DNA sequence: CATGAATGAGCCTTCATTCAT
DNA sequence: CATGAATGAAGGCTCATTCAT
C-alpha cells in the first residue's frame, strides 16, 4: 500500500534525470521508461503524452526549491542575512537544475494548455509573501512594500539573475560572486533594509 | 545594395513570424519557406540547419528592443521618468514577442554550441550600462551602483517580470498596472533614486 | 439457467453495438468490455482473440434476420406478397445493421481460419429453400427453379441490392422505393411468378 | 514526361499486389513502398494516409473489370450468349481479385469520407445500362425493364453471387458451374429473354 | 471465475535534409 | 543561385494480450 503512485513518481524522477542529461528534444520516451524500469506502454497509463510530464516536473521542482530555501534560511538571523540565504538557496538550486529549468520553460510554452505555471508557484509565492509581511511588521523593510506583489518580483528577479549566470553566461567564479553581491545590494536597497 | 541578403532577411522575418504563431516545436522548415516565398532547398543555402536561424532571430530581437527603448526614452526627462519609460518599452516588447523570446531561450539552450546569448545582448547591456553611468555621474542614483553589473541585473529583472506577467500569469489589466508600479518602485529604491 | 453464458452474450451484444458505432478498425477491446461492464481480462475468458467474436456476431445476426423475416412473412398471403415481405424484411434489417454486416464481411475475411460464413447462413438458406420448394410444389413458381441453389441466389441478390442502397449509395427515399420495386419485379420474373 | 504520376501508379499497383497477398490489416506501408521501389516518405507525398489508397484502388479495379467485360462480350452474339459472357467476365474477375475486392469493401467502410463508391462504379453502371437499353430497343428483353435501375441490380446480383462463391463458400468446381447456370437462368427469366 | 494494471512489439507518420535538374 | 521532389531515420503512441492477485 506504500507504493501508491509509485510508478508515477518513478516516471517523474526518471524524466527529470534524463531531461537533465539529454535535453528535451533528444529525450525519447524510451529513455525515460528504461530508467524508470517500466514498460513503454505504462508511461501512457500515467501521462497522456511526452510533454505532459512537464507540469508534474515543475511541481516537483517548486517543492525542491522550497525545501532548499527552508533549510537554508535561519529564522533567527537578521533580515539582511536571511536575504543572502534566500539568494544562496535559489542560486544553488538553479545551478543544480539549470537544464531542467530551461526545459520547463521550453516545455511549458511548447505544450498548449499550460498556464498552470502560476498555480505551481503559488506555494513559493506564499512563502515569500509571508517572509516579507513578517519583515514589514517588524519594521525591517520599507513600509511601502506590498508583500503579495513584491514576493513575485523578488522570486522573478533572483531566479532571472541566477539563470542569466548559470544558463546563458559563461561566467567566472569570481564574477559570479560579484554579481551575487550586486544583486543582494540591489535587493537590500529595493526593500529598504537598514543595516 | 538594396536586396543584398534579401532572401536571408526574408527567412529570418518569416521564421520570427511563424515561430510567434506556432511555437518552436510545431514550426516546420516548410512553414518558414512558404511564408518567405522561397523553395525548401533555398533555406539551406543560407542556414545550415533549422536551429541555426535562432541566433539570427535573437540578433534581430535585440535590435528591435533597442529601437523600442531608444524611441521611448526621453533624454531630457528625469531619471525617474526615464526608468518608467524603459520599463514600458521592455514590457511592450515582451508582450509583443513573448513567444519568440521563449523560443530563443529554448532554441539557444537546445542548440548545442550556443552560449552566444551573452554576445547578442551585449549591445543592450552596453546601452543600459551607459545609461546608469551617466545617471551615476549626475548623482541621480546611488554611488555604489556598479553600472556594468547593474545593467545586467536590471534587464534580467524587468524582462523576468514582464515574462511572468505576459507568459505565465493570466493577469488583469489592473493587476498588470499595479505590478508595473511595484516594479518601478522597487527599481527606484534599488538604484537609490531620489525623487 | 437464466444467466448461463450471461457474460458471453453481454460481450457479443456490446461488440455489435460498438462495431455499429465505431467500425471495426476503430473498435478497441477496451470499448467492448466497457460497454459490457466487465473487466478487460474477462473478455479473454470467453473469446481467444478480438476477431473471434466475429462468428458469434454473425450467428446472432442470422438469428435476428430470421426473426425479422418470420415476423414479416404472412404464411397465408400469395407468393407475390410474400416475396415483397421477404424483401422488406431483408431491407429493413440491412438498413439497421449495415455497419455490422460490412464488418462481418471484413472480419471474416480478415480472420484467417474462417470460411464459416456458409455454415452460419445455413439456417437462413434452409428456410428460403423450404420457401421455394413449397412454392414450387404449389406451382406458384416456375418448375425449373432449383430451390437449394436459388435460395442462395435470392439471399445474395436481395442483400446486395440493399447494401448497394444503404451502404454505398446516398439515395433518396423515392429512388429507394423505385429500386425496391424494380428488384421485386426482377425477382418475380426470375422465379416465374404468375400474378 | 512520360512518367507523370508514375510514382502514384506504382504505389497503387504495389498496394493492390501486397493487399492481395497479406490482407489489409497485415499490410504495412513499408511493404507497399518496398514493392513500389520508393522511400517511405514518398508514399505520403501522394496519399495522406494508408487507407486513402483505397478509393484509387477501387477505381483501378472498376477499370479492370470493364476491360474484362468489354473483351469478353461479342457484340454480334445473341443477348443470351452475351449475358453468359458478362457473367463469365465478372466471375473470372472476382475470382482473380477476390481478396482485393474484400479489402475494398472493408477499406471503404473503414475510411470515413467514402461514399465515393457510387461515383467509382458509374462508368460500369452506364455501360450496363446501355447494354440493357440496346437489348430493349431490339425487343430482346421484356419491355418493363428500366435500364438505369436494372443495370445496378444486375451488377449487384452477379457480383454478389460471384463473391458468395469465391469469397465465402468453399465450393467445388462442379457446384460452381451449377450455381453459375442457375444464376444465368435466373437472369434470363428476370430480363424476360426469349430463347 | 474475475480483475485491470502492466506489457512491449510494432507501425504510421513526420520532417529536417539532400541533390539532381 | 534556386528549386522542390524525394529521402529515410527516428520516435511517439496504440492496443491486443497476459498474469499476478
UniProtKB/TrEMBL annotation, chains A, B, C, D:
HTH tetR-type domain mapped to chain residues: 5-65
PROSITE patterns: HTH_TETR_2
Annotation: DNA-binding region: 28-47
Family matches, as InterPro entries: Homeodomain-like_sf, HTH-type_Tx_Regulator, HTH_TetR, Tet_transcr_reg_TetR-rel_C_sf, YvdT_C
Keyword Transit peptide attached: no
Record keyword Lipid biosynthesis present: no
Keyword annotations of the record: DNA-binding, Repressor
Pfam name, any one: TetR_C_26
PANTHER family for this protein: ACREF/ENVCD OPERON REPRESSOR-RELATED, TRANSCRIPTIONAL REGULATOR, TETR FAMILY
The protein's name in its UniProt record: TetR family transcriptional regulator
Organism listed in the record: Siminovitchia fordii
Amino acid at each position: 500500500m506504500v507504493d501508491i503512485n509509485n510508478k508515477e513518481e518513478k516516471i517523474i524522477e526518471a524524466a527529470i534525470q534524463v531531461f537533465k542529461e539529454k535535453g528535451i528534444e533528444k529525450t525519447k520516451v524510451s529513455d525515460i521508461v528504461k530508467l524508470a524500469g517500466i514498460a513503454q506502454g505504462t508511461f501512457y497509463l500515467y501521462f497522456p503524452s511526452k510533454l505532459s510530464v512537464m507540469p508534474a516536473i515543475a511541481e516537483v521542482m517548486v517543492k525542491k526549491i522550497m525545501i532548499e530555501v527552508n533549510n537554508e534560511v535561519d529564522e533567527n538571523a537578521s533580515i539582511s542575512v536571511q536575504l543572502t540565504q534566500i539568494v544562496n538557496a535559489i542560486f544553488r538550486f538553479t545551478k543544480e537544475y539549470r537544464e531542467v529549468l530551461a526545459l520547463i520553460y521550453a516545455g511549458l510554452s511548447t505544450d498548449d494548455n499550460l498556464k498552470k505555471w502560476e498555480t505551481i508557484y503559488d506555494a513559493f509565492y506564499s512563502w515569500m509573501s509571508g517572509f516579507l509581511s513578517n519583515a514589514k511588521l517588524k519594521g525591517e523593510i520599507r513600509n511601502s512594500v506590498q508583500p503579495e506583489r513584491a514576493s513575485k518580483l523578488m522570486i522573478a528577479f533572483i531566479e532571472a539573475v541566477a539563470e542569466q549566470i548559470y544558463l546563458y553566461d559563461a561566467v567566472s567564479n569570481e564574477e559570479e560572486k560579484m554579481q551575487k553581491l550586486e544583486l543582494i545590494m540591489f535587493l537590500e536597497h529595493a526593500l529598504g533594509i537598514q543595516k
